[in-house]
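Case 189 in the screening queue. Each case pairs one protein sequence with one candidate compound; here the compound is adenosine-5'-triphosphate. For every case the pipeline is the same: read the inputs, emit a complex structure as tokens, and attach any notable structural observations.

Predict complex for case 189.
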Amino acid sequence: MSAGLAFADVACVRGGRLLFEGLRFALGPGDAALVTGPNGTGKSSLIRIAAGLLPAAAGRVTGKGARALLAETAALDPELALAAALRFWARIDGRAMAVEAALAAVDLEQLAQVPVRLLSTGQRRRAAFARILASGAPVWLLDEPANGLDTQSAQVLEQLIADHRGCGGIALVATHLPIALPHAQEVRL
Ligand SMILES: Nc1ncnc2c1ncn2[C@@H]1O[C@H](COP(=O)(O)OP(=O)(O)OP(=O)(O)O)[C@@H](O)[C@H]1O
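Case 189 output:
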């Protein structure tokens, strides 16, 4: 897996307010960065800039490899069975066959035929993570990935991130909850 993500002197302005500037970091295969800071300092905005959903006010974001975003909403069709909703996105990535393993990885295979709208908060979060897994993208952009997860699910999440890094993937993680991310660069806002 060949992956990269770099911020070079990136600035972020929202609603006319400068949130951060001069932000620099570079991640290569197996690397992770932990984005922390008080509410409203721009953690989600930074992740959105990395995803290409929000333009940087200054500086440049460069990288190598597809990026997968875990944000507040998973954009899974609430009326579809979970597996079908995940397959919708996986097919676009040409990876429909990856859905089954992704569901198993987040311990949701028993709920594959349950409509997304019936999932609990934590199950929905795990479903969103299954979408990231199924994408096969080497660069993971995770905004508050542990929100709504119980202790055991949070540990599964940490292990999946570690496995991903072990295969040369990258994780950029914004969180206000403690999450084990060994040897991660800290990006403090
Ligand atoms: N679409 C928008 N237009 C204007 N301002 C915005 C917009 N979205 C977010 N902001 C503002 O940008 C600032 C940073 O928001 P952001 O969600 O990036 O912070 P955060 O660090 O992730 O916060 P939290 O820890 O509460 O999730 C906030 O003051 C917010 O009100």
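Case 189 observations:
- The two ends are 29 Å apart (CA to CA).
- Strands lie at 4-14, 17-27, 32-36, 58-64, 67-70, 139-143, 170-174, 185-188.
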